[in-house]
Fold this protein.
Amino acid sequence: MSATAERPATRGFVGLPIDRVDGHAKVTGAARYAADAPIAAPLHATIVQATIACGRIIAIDERATRAVEGVVDVLTYHNATRIPALPFDFTAPSSEELAPLQSDEIKYDGQHVAAVIAETFEAARAGAALLRVEYESRAPELSPGGARTVEQPEQWFGSDAQPRRGDPERAFEAAGVRIDQTYTTPIENHNPLEPSATVAEWRDGELIVHDSTQWVRGTRAVLAKSFGLDEEKVRVIAPYLGGGFGCKGFFWPHPLIAAMAAKLTNRPVKLVLTREQMFTSCGYRSETRQRLRLGATRDGRLQAILHDVLGTSSRVGTFVETAGGVTAMLFDVPNIAVTHSIARLDVPTPTAMRAPGEAPGSFALGCALDELASACGIDPLDVLRRNHAAVDPSSGLPFSSKHLLACYERGAEAFGWSTRPQAPRAMRDGGELVGWGVATATYPALRSPAQARVVLGADGSVDVASATHDLGTGMYTILAQIAADELGVDPRAIRVRIGDSSFPIAPVAGGSMSSASVGPAVQDAARRAYREAIAIATSAGGSPLHGLGEDEIEACDGGLRSKREPSRAIAYGEIVRLGGSGAIEALGSAAPGDEGERLSFHSFGAQFVEVRYDEELARLRVSRALGVFDCGRILNAKTARSQMIGGIVWGIGMALMEETVRDPRAGAVVTNNFADYHVPVNADIAAIDVLFVEEPDLAFNPLGVRGIGEIGITGVAAAIANAVYHATGVRLRDLPIVPEKLLAAQAAV
Amino acid sequence: MRTSERPAAPARSLPLTLRLNGRDATFTIEPEVTLLDLLRERGGLTGTKKGCDRGQCGACTVLVNGRRTLSCLALALAHAGDAITTIEGLADGDRLHPVQAAFVEHDALQCGFCTPGQILSAVGVIAEGRARTDDEIREAMSGNLCRCGAYPNIVAAVAAAREALR
Ligand code: FES
Ligand code: FES
């Protein structure tokens, strides 16, 4: 025991709020994002996009473009590499089935029609501005209401897209209290601050691509398939991403254009999308129209939920914004009917955006529950508690670890909820109306097979590698912490290398699954390396630990030592030298088993919000937000908190300002910049607090971690809309809640 | 869209010397090259980021003669002789500038893409004496978007750096 007490604290890093290990690189400008790839003298490609939504190209006049000094070539469907249709499947997931620059057909405004390749960025930009493309245009279909093609997908990503149980219509009709409302959410764009970029280079028949992708191996798979190459002949590199939030997850056409341009010119090519192009080139969150019918008893117990969701998709790809995805799971309701429909329009393809489905779905459902509370004259938090589901009602399975009631409890106490008056317009501070709202946060816990490699070097170095990503999520840091705990090494001394398709397999950085997938793989690799080090240290002649058994040894401060005689110690570098093979290298892997057949895995949380509304100025702001989350074990208290704050900021943006507007006749995005598409700025964000109900979910994986990337946004918009109702007495069911809508609604009262 | 078919005039390039992170740097560039593209594409200084290329995000913020400047809206040739400080020029060798150190300590960054611009803005805002309260920091730093939503931590970092720089 005394040896343990004396042992330096070289374990127990997991969970600590240690500084981001990539922080230094990011504050000094040393972190290289895709467009910063150190490639000497690349050519620059600028994309030209269609200015009609439906029709075809009838002529392309390149003369003025080619006359610009420095323009090298122009890539159009006339000279582009022929590429077969791109599949949307799980090995090579392309968002669009249509490869770029293959024909004269135009399927949406913003479709890539050409790339101008030049010696300088300036020449490429000038050349692109001078390219004359003539179109033959047909009237596009742009509105989901009344679209000619509306589909009802049976499944989406393996889940039932039309779940049903009981007799919801009858139960709704028979209910003592009925809510029947329609909620709408607009198109939103991810707008990571880093525009998507690709630097492509062909070297001896191999394609090397620096790309802002959340999935190096997925991108590699599509590129390989497109060019008819073995996957080993393609390498995709993405050590840093300037945010992604989903728009860099599936494959989009522009990396293919960069690779084609590099092939055509036999030079490295750098292609960076403009901010304007980001609005049509890498997905967006579909608008949703959600009709929700709740039937309940007079004391607020749900008897039936009917949730009908209409979203959109394009002519060239499919994405279903499954806003009703959590409806069947979240509350203890015997009768459920959820439908999802998508209208096919002449628009770009939507995609996953932070909490796809859950974000707009939790808005509608969270508001409807609040309306139910008002109708019953019950505190909204009590309605949430009363309908709490102890087991997953959608599958009948028990939850692996659910502490939602504790989130409500702790949140209510920290927020001061018990002093909330029931009636709207009952709280004032100076000239401002004050309102409080609450809603439930939820996101499924997902996990994929993953691998990682740990290498102990003769110089004492510890290297961790996996083809995963850090989008700002803290992956670099938590992987170092996990390996540190297994090896007894300071995490700051560990070199983590990620974002390279040549590294061991990791899934897309999406679905909040990276920590739960890659973390256990790193743990496994580090354990294997540790055991290998013990095997050498206990058997090699010159080792101070020679002859000891495995259980007599412990890790300490960058090496191993005897538990009983701590002075008998040896550093890892020394062990490696004794081993004589230059390095100790271990490949670890981890994968989910059949636990999903017995248990339901979800994260939960409670969002509490205070808004203030100045009626004189029609100024609405969120003055206070608190999120309490049940996400399993937290691997780094500092970076996890930041990520949750980020999610709540996203929720504030979603609730109050974000909206992509298309010209209703032509289909062009008219809000394609930061002056017209508003994201929260510093002055929009006041106090945000985050608490964790930290219960490790060890049935899910050996680290007990679920994901935290997406749950932070869920429920926020509902809590804000509910707080706006509480402050003003006005229900707004159409996001974003901008002052114009509040004024109009108040005038109508 | 312009439809001119005149070939671009040859030899439009002009010499430019500026003081870049404390050293003289000389380029030969065309008049339309922005300070941002000069730094990134010709100066090898990729720490300064392009988030919008139209003055709306702040990612390209550098200090020009000590003033916060959006380098995407500045034509490079207009800055002959000016002293430019980029994120690469802020640390003193291995010693981080107090604002850089505060950003790491307070986790005032996630993806890090806005961070160089945030840090240069913060250096300027503190030097101008406009970071006296949290509200003042929020206001003065609102030209620098952070899509990751690190704002509360950015405010904490700027306030801490202000104290460290006192
Ligand atoms: S790149 Fe200059 S302000 Fe956005
Ligand atoms: S840290 Fe990602 S945009 Fe600010």
About this structure: Residues 14-89 of chain B form a domain with the Ubiquitin-like (UB roll) fold (CATH 3.10.20.30). The beta strands of chain B are 14-20, 23-29, 61-64, 67-70, 83-85.
